[in-house]
Amino acid sequence: MNILHIDTCPLCGKSHFVKEMTCTDHYATGESFDLYRCQDCGFLFTQGVPTEAEIGRYYESPDYISHSDTNKGLMNRIYHWVRRYMLGRKARLIRHSSRLNKGALLDIGTGTGYFSHFMQQKGWTVSAIEKSPQAREFAREHFALDVKAPEELAGLSDASFDVVTLWHVMEHLEHLNETWEILHRILKERGILIIAVPNPTSYDAQKYREMWGAYDVPRHLWHFSPSILQQFGAKHGFILAEQHPMPFDAFYVSILSEKYRKSGMPFLKGMLSGTRAWFASAANKERSSSMIYVFRKKQV
């Protein structure tokens, strides 16, 4: 198997790394992966993951519910209930931040297509990209969406989208700087880029450490704190315009983390921990389990 070894930090270009912790792939294989931190800029990443061409088997689990439509089991039911709520919240955020009721939207990592379909129903012209062939097929069959493979991202026209969204996708992408460059190119001058990612400086991340469910190794290659993601945006010609907490994520991630700990009554303990995380993020939104960031292009 071909392994991705990171020799230079994709943010600052330096190569002074220190091992932070070792995490386990609880979803698919039980394998262990090390998290390293750049000593110069503080960027945290997973070292030694399979390359993009070979990581597919680490997604081959019915538990990986971002690419699943099953309602089987309590965790899946919670996930789908929260997803329905979040579709409305995402649409309101886009309308508010873009100041548009409709326009051209690209959703990268659309999964099974629920968000793309929802925005189509709201009147938007939606394009979508998804890596998983099974998820693309689901989106075509259920929503008649023409979902493209990731290889087609680089071929999209300049300044062709009012909104580009990546909902829990950026942390998966091997070619990080190249993706940021494409995002800048395809976005209209007054368009907005919306990125949602887990937050390794959150209350629950600090509580659970290597058992934190949102490290999700090796699928999550990059681990973005609020300041690190802002620096990536600035590096590629973006200004951070807004950031919003995702408080529901703390409940789901805390329940997962308790399961990984093999705790008794993981649901109840996770709900309690999620409630504490909720209050922590209410006092300081940058301690939220996941964050939504809204970027705009720097105006020359």
Class inferred from helices and paired strands:
alpha/beta
Could you state the CATH homologous superfamily? Vaccinia Virus protein VP39
Shape: globular
Detail the poorly predicted runs.
none
Task: Report strand %.
Answer: 15-25%
Average pLDDT reading: 93
Distance between the termini: 45 Å
- The total domain count is 1
* CATH overall fold name: Rossmann fold
Assign the CATH class: Alpha Beta
List the secondary-structure elements in sequence, H or E: EEEEEHEHEHEEHEHEHEHHE
User: If helices are DSSP runs of H or I spanning 4 or more residues, what is the number of helices?
Assistant: 8
Alpha carbon gyration radius: 18 Å
* Biggest β-sheet description: 7 strands, mixed
CATH architecture annotation name: 3-Layer(aba) Sandwich
Helicity level: 25-40%
Can you summarize this structure?
This protein is 34% helix and 24% strand. The chain has 300 residues and is of the alpha/beta class. The chain has a seven-stranded mixed β-sheet with strand order 8-7-6-9-10-13-12, sandwiched between helices. A four-stranded antiparallel β-sheet has the order 2-3-4-11, with no helix packed on it. Strands 1-5 form a two-stranded antiparallel sheet.
List strands and helices in order, with pairings.
Blueprint (H helix, E strand, L loop, with lengths): L2 E2 L12 E8 L7 E7 L5 E4 L1 E2 L23 H25 L5 E5 L5 H8 L3 E5 L3 H11 L3 E2 L12 E7 L8 H11 E12 L4 H6 L13 E2 L2 H10 L2 E8 L2 H13 L5 H18 L6 E8 L3
Parallel strand pairs: 6-7, 6-9, 7-8, 9-10
Antiparallel strand pairs: 1-5, 2-3, 3-4, 4-11, 10-13, 12-13
Helix pairs in contact: 7-8
Keywords: Methyltransferase, Transferase
Protein name: Class I SAM-dependent methyltransferase
InterPro entries: SAM-dependent_MTases_sf
